């Protein structure tokens, strides 16, 4: 490759001038050299490429190569999840240890294909695309360790994202067979679609001992606060469709309902709202005339008119996200991506990442019972707040919803924050979009405190060579009653500071006093300001037109009654 | 030529060969090493997750949810009803055990049962009840109530305690409004008794909510119960002491790194952690002291370490340690919570929690990671290195946050009770409730009322945090009390001067005069809209009503006889933009403690400091109109209305209570004072001799309601940058201010 590349770059210049015979000669010669090179290369790599197939085909491995594990019928089944589990009771914190980086180590079990005694797989889909993405992301992250003995958290490679494709009992048996299972201690399972017909539980039905559950549809009754993590239901459209960010502001429709599987009771309610409020509401449904298929998932219809989904979401200020059979809805992700403010109607639903995200700033949660009042409720929200919510919604999607990687790493960070709470991310870090992070000012001294006079102040005097004026400053400032300490910073490398109280004359003093008159001095300072502003990325200085003076400053009032009579008298 | 080419080609080929060898050579050792590893233990060490080349299926087939939904027969309404039926007692949530419809009609109102004859209640519980009764949530009519609070003392449910109320079960069941505890709130500080200290209250609480101290995460019903702090009998009812932090020291380290002084339990529940503390004690900067000397028969159980521990314990003074330590350990006692928690918080000693499973006080709204270090009892030995690893910036911030939280939610029984009620109210409000930012940043949830607006930018407190600025215009509100008779009346001059301000958006004339409204043409023509509003009942408080017509963030409040120039208004507004949460204005007054009369005094003398800026000429955020109207009790507002006086003092009390800072006085032309005090044409209220005495009375009345004196003195006046400097007047922007 190397040789041919080199040659071809010269070729066009050389070849036309050659005679055909010579050309053939050269081509042959080169073929030989090239072949030789290839052979040498092969020879070089051959010996180890035979045994390390795993290494070299790392990028091209097949899930079918994963070892097959047969589950005996009698294989043990874990206990159902314990609702009272909390980090201090069901999680072995000793495994995480003390480390200066305050970061947990996560181990991923190698892929295995579990089948029952007759060889039927435990899952109809096996490893899904999304779970594969999630595990890759963890494996590429700082959290990952390949050393099972150093791991704090274990992630099985058994895909339980969608309970619908699982055989519950066999999946549970497979979990229990994991070499480090140990009653599910420190194991983390990711599930986005829990439950099944007829009552659709809000947490994964697979018995799982003490394993932590990152679940996408928890209700307040199944969510173990501070133990489980509530995650979003990933929307496959996130990867397929690019919706450029839109500036917050009023949009064509006020409320949009675009979910296709809305219970008829609720659809009737929405239709009534539509009747009352007309154009402000857009109520979309599945297109009946389109052929069924994955493509139809990208279309919505209203009275024969076809709309592109999810693009249409960008045309509305608010978008309804109603519960279905499950509390968690993938539509939430689409809505956020479109920068549409989600109106969430799913009683008892634990919102995604609610442990760290302030959903009040990005969504409106309305009790299902109040669906009929939705329009009035939303109308009462100030415009500027709607805009802030639109921006916040989009930011939540970008940071925490947009990919399986985002979802997975956010989950790990939340668990990490629980284990090292003193090093946890702050509310601002989680919730402020980059634009706010840039423009906000968070003073390190945020408590409104008016310090007492008693401790006084420390004077710091920077000096170079102007001894006379230094002494003058020292003499004046030491008269101040609240001076606690005076610190002189001697900034001259060539001379040692004058000793003791002895006053000495410096002949150059007058000459240097002219420093501030120097034109270049001002130019330099302007340059500094520009340089600093460019490093800060913004100009942090603010201009004000006021100045602080004593209350009676220059007032027509007896000077001896003033607290600070001498100010301004120089 | 050809030979040259040949050489060139050979050379390049050779170079490539060498290169290949090099590459191979580099790879060889790595490859052989991994080969070696593998042969070492037979088991392949696990590699990072491989990249699979097969096309994988999506986890969610495109038609799954649709199919599922269509096969679903149960209606969502039915499903809700099933939930509310199933999830009771230990699994209660607002959705299943709380009747929201009771709060619909009258809002969030709280009813307190009347005290039954012969029932005694503890002082602490009395404080809780009177805090509710003094709050704006209180109603004496159970028919209006959304929440019910018992008059039976449930605070101490330790059977061995003298405060224990017997037969509570029957007493509660006999209450006519009990309704299985629905919409009831039960306060409790102690439950269970020696030796296991269970969290059982000894009676069936039905569907009632608990506001309980030392509650464990296992028993805590999220978003239903409220975890409250354990407080002592001496905890003040209102006001409360301020935090001990007077100024920030940098670097923030104190004499001790970590301290604790408390009892050690030789046996029984909760003894493990305290028994192990001596391992970490180093008698230098980590001082953890325990004593065995408590209870009657401690000598019987005493172990080998007791005598040594007791001696060490007596060597140190608890107060001294509390004030001089960076961190304070708060290990669990018999119960999960301990008094050490609030003590540390007040002392600005960052609490280090060692109480596994304790649902921290007000955990629903407070982000404790910003004010405490949440340790793990299992990792006691790591605690010193953990706290030492915390960066000094973080310590500085944790320490300030302890002070904020202490003063916002914990310093008095009233604050604890109000916080509990506000948390429950937030659940009732649903989408209109406070965001976490409002609870966890200054001035805190009790002063940030969510009914005002859900938008953080509508409040004066969050501009810097969110990188926003207040709206750059103001609305002037002129309080008119005298009829319009002549065209030379001060109000008309004022109107014209204010309207000329480049920052003026509109002028509202609040007509609080008994005479009818003057005709429209009587008002001077201005470039900004002038809106005349008839005052509601013509009372004083109506000048601070949150009128919808006020669309700007800033309000310029004016008396009708105020004399101000356009320049003065402009300057005051530019100052306010830098201090949007404070009152910025002209006439300054001061308060002082009159030690002879043992009461607060009010003075209008020219002094070197001030603590109030009167609202006759002041700019402040319009949120304070809302707060004045909705936060203050009607007792104070009606006092103001009856006296037709003191509304400006009350506003200053309110704003300083919120900000903990003084108002800001700006420069004025010097004739202002004379105008105000004398020559006004109307029968000025300022001329009334009672007027001044009333203001003294107001001060004391207000201070007692606030529980402390919120006003803060300032010695600073803000002047335009070149004010009275010896430069040409032409270089000055606000030159009118110094011209006489």
UniProtKB/TrEMBL annotation, chain A:
Residues 256-283 form a coiled coil. InterPro entries: Exostosin, Exostosin_GT47, GT64_dom, Nucleotide-diphossugar_trans. Signal peptide: none annotated. The chain crosses the membrane at residues 24-46. It is a single-pass type II membrane protein. Pfam families: Exostosin_GT47, Glyco_transf_64. One of its GO terms (biological process) is heparan sulfate proteoglycan biosynthetic process. Residues 457-499, 501-553 form the Glycosyl transferase domain. Its main location: endoplasmic reticulum. Keywords: Coiled coil, Disulfide bond, Endoplasmic reticulum, Membrane, Transferase, Transmembrane, Transmembrane helix. GO terms for molecular function: glycosyltransferase activity. Residues 101-381 form the Exostosin GT47 domain. GO terms for cellular component: endoplasmic reticulum membrane. It is found in: Endoplasmic reticulum membrane. Belongs to the glycosyltransferase 47 family. This is Exostosin glycosyltransferase 2.
UniProtKB/TrEMBL annotation, chain B:
It is a single-pass type II membrane protein. Keywords: Disulfide bond, Endoplasmic reticulum, Glycoprotein, Glycosyltransferase, Manganese, Membrane, Metal-binding, Signal-anchor, Transferase, Transmembrane, Transmembrane helix. InterPro entries: Exostosin, Exostosin_GT47, GT64_dom, Nucleotide-diphossugar_trans. Its cofactor is Mn(2+). GO terms for biological process: heparan sulfate proteoglycan biosynthetic process; ossification. It is found in: Endoplasmic reticulum membrane. One of its GO terms (cellular component) is Golgi apparatus. One of its GO terms (molecular function) is N-acetylglucosaminyl-proteoglycan 4-beta-glucuronosyltransferase activity. Gene3D superfamilies: Spore Coat Polysaccharide Biosynthesis Protein SpsA, Chain A. Residues 474-723 form the Glycosyl transferase domain. Residues 105-390 form the Exostosin GT47 domain. Pathway: Protein modification; protein glycosylation. Glycosyltransferase required for the biosynthesis of heparan-sulfate. Belongs to the glycosyltransferase 47 family. This is Exostosin glycosyltransferase 1. The lineage of its organism: Eukaryota, Metazoa, Chordata, Craniata, Vertebrata.
């Amino acid at each position: 490759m190397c040789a041919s590349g080199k040659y071809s770059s010269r070729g066009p210049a050389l070849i036309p001038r050659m005679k055909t015979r010579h050309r053939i000669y050269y081509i042959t010669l080169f073929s030989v050299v090239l072949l030789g090179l290839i052979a040498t290369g092969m020879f070089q790599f051959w010996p180890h490429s035979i045994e390390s197939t795993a290494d070299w085909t790392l990028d091209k491995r097949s899930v079918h190569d994963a070892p097959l594990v047969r589950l005996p019928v009698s294989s043990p089944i874990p206990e159902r999840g314990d609702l009272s589990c909390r980090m201090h009771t069901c999680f072995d914190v000793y495994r995480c240890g003390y480390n200066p980086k305050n970061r947990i180590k996560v181990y991923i079990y190698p892929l295995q294909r579990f089948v029952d005694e007759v060889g039927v797989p435990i899952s109809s889909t096996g490893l899904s695309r999304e779970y594969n993405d999630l595990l890759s992301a963890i494996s590429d992250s700082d959290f990952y360790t390949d050393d099972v003995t150093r791991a704090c958290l274990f992630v099985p490679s058994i895909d339980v994202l969608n309970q619908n494709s699982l055989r519950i009992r066999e999946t549970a048996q497979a979990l229990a067979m994991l070499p480090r299972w140990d009653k599910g201690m420190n194991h983390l399972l990711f599930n986005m679609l829990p439950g099944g017909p007829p009552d659709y539980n809000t947490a994964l039905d697979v018995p799982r001992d003490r394993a932590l559950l990152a679940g996408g549809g928890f209700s307040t009754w199944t969510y173990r606060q501070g133990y489980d993590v509530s995650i979003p239901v990933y929307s496959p459209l996130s990867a397929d469709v690019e919706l450029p960010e839109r500036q917050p502001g009023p949009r064509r429709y006020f409320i949009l309902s675009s979910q296709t599987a809305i219970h008829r009771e609720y659809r009737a309610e929405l239709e009534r709202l539509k009747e009352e409020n007309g154009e402000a509401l857009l109520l979309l449904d599945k297109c009946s005339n389109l052929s069924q298929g994955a493509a139809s998932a990208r279309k919505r219809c209203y009275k024969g008119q076809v709309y592109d989904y999810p693009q249409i979401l960008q045309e509305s200020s608010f978008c309804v996200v109603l519960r279905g059979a499950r509390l968690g809805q993938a539509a939430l992700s689409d809505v956020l991506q479109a920068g549409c403010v989600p109106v969430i109607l799913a009683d008892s639903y634990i919102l995604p990442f609610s442990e760290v995200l302030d959903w009040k700033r990005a969504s409106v949660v309305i009790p299902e019972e109040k669906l009929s009042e939705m329009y009035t409720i939303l109308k009462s929200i100030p415009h500027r707040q709607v805009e802030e919510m639109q921006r916040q919604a989009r930011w939540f999607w970008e940071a925490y919803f947009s990919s399986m990687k985002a979802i997975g790493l956010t989950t790990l960070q939340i668990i990490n924050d629980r284990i090292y709470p003193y090093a946890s991310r702050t509310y601002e870090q989680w919730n402020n979009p980059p634009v706010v992070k840039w423009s906000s000012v968070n003073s390190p001294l945020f408590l409104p405190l008016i310090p007492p006079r008693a401790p006084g102040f420390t004077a710091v005097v920077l000096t170079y060579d102007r001894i006379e004026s230094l002494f003058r400053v020292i003499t004046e400032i030491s008269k101040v009653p609240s001076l606690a300490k005076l610190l002189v910073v001697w900034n001259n490398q060539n001379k040692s500071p004058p000793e003791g109280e002895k006053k000495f004359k410096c002949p150059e003093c007058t000459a240097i006093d002219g420093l501030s008159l120097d034109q270049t001095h001002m130019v330099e300072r302007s340059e500094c300001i520009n340089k600093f502003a460019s490093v800060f990325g913004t100009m942090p200085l603010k201009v004000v037109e006021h100045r602080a003076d004593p209350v009676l400053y220059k007032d027509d009032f007896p000077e001896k009654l003033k607290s600070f009579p001498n100010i301004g008298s120089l | 030529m050809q030979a040259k080419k040949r050489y060139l080609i050979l050379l390049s080929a050779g170079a490539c060969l060498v290169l290949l060898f090099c590459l191979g050579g580099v790879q060889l050792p790595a490859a052989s090493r991994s080969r070696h590893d593998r042969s070492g233990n037979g088991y392949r060490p696990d590699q990072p997750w491989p990249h699979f080349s097969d096309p994988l299926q999506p986890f969610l087939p495109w038609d799954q949810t649709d199919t599922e939904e269509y096969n679903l027969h149960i209606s969502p309404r039915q499903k809700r009803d099933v939930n509310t039926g199933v999830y009771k007692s230990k699994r209660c949530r607002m959705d299943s055990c709380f009747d929201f419809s009771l709060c619909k009609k009258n809002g969030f109102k709280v009813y307190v049962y009347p005290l039954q004859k012969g029932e005694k209640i503890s002082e602490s519980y009395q404080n809780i009840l009177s805090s509710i009764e003094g709050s704006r949530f209180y109603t004496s009519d159970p028919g209006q109530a959304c929440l019910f609070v018992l008059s039976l003392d449930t605070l101490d449910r330790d059977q061995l305690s003298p405060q224990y109320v017997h037969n509570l079960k029957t007493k509660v069941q006999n209450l006519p409004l009990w309704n299985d505890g629905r919409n009831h709130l039960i306060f409790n500080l102690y439950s269970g008794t020696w030796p296991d200290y269970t969290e059982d209250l000894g009676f069936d609480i039905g569907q009632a909510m608990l506001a309980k101290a030392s509650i464990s995460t296992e028993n805590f019903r999220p978003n239903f119960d409220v975890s409250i702090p354990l407080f002592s009998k001496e905890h003040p009812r209102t006001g409360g002491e301020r935090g001990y932090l007077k100024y920030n020291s940098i670097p923030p380290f104190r004499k001790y790194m970590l301290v604790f002084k408390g009892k050690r339990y030789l046996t029984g529940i909760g003894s493990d952690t305290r028994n192990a503390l001596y391992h970490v004690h180093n008698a230098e900067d980590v001082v953890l002291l325990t004593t065995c000397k408590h209870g009657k028969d401690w000598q019987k159980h005493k172990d080998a370490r007791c005598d040594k521990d007791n001696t060490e314990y007596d060597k140190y003074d608890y107060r001294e340690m509390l004030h001089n330590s960076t961190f304070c350990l708060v290990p669990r006692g018999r119960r999960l919570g301990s008094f050490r928690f609030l003590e540390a918080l007040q002392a600005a000693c960052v609490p280090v929690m060692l109480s596994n499973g304790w649902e921290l006080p007000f955990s629903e709204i407070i982000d404790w990671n910003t004010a405490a270090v949440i340790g793990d009892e299992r990792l006691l030995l790591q605690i010193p290195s953990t706290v030492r690893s915390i960066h000094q910036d973080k310590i500085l911030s944790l320490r300030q946050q302890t002070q904020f939280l202490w003063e916002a939610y914990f310093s008095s029984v009233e604050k604890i009770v109000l916080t509990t009620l506000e948390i429950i109210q937030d659940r009732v409000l649903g989408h209109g409730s406070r965001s976490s930012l409002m609870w966890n940043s200054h001035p805190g949830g009790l002063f940030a009322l969510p009914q005002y607006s859900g938008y953080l930018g509508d409040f004066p407190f969050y501009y810097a945090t969110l990188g926003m600025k207040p709206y750059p215009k103001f609305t002037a509100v002129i309080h008119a009390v005298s009829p319009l008779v002549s065209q030379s009346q001060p109000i008309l001059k004022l109107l014209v001067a204010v309207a000329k301000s480049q920052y003026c958006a509109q002028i509202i004339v609040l007509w609080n005069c008994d005479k009818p409204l003057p005709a429209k043409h009587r008002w001077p023509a201005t470039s900004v809209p002038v809106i005349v509003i008839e005052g509601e009942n013509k009372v004083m408080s109506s000048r601070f009503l949150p009128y919808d017509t006020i669309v700007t963030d800033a309000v310029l409040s004016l008396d009708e006889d105020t004399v101000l120039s356009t320049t003065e208004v402009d300057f005051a507004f530019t100052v306010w933009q830098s201090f949007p949460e404070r009152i910025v204005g002209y006439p300054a007054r001061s308060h002082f403690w009159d030690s002879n009369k043992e009461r607060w005094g009010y003075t209008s003398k020219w002094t070197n400091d001030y603590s109030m800026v009167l609202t006759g000429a002041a700019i402040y955020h319009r949120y304070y109109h809302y707060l004045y109207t909705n936060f203050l009790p009607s007792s104070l507002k009606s006092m103001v209305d009856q006296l037709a006086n003191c509304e400006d003092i009350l506003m200053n009390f309110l704003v300083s209570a919120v900000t903990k800072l003084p108002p800001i006085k700006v420069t004025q032309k010097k004739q202002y004072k004379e105008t105000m005090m004398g020559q006004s044409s109307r029968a000025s209220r300022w001329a009334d001799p009672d007027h001044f005495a009333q203001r003294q009375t107001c001060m004391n009345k207000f201070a007692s309601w606030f529980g402390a004196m919120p006003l803060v003195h300032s010695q600073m006046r803000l002047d335009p940058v070149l004010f009275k400097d010896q430069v040409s007047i032409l270089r000055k922007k606000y030159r009118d201010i110094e011209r006489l």
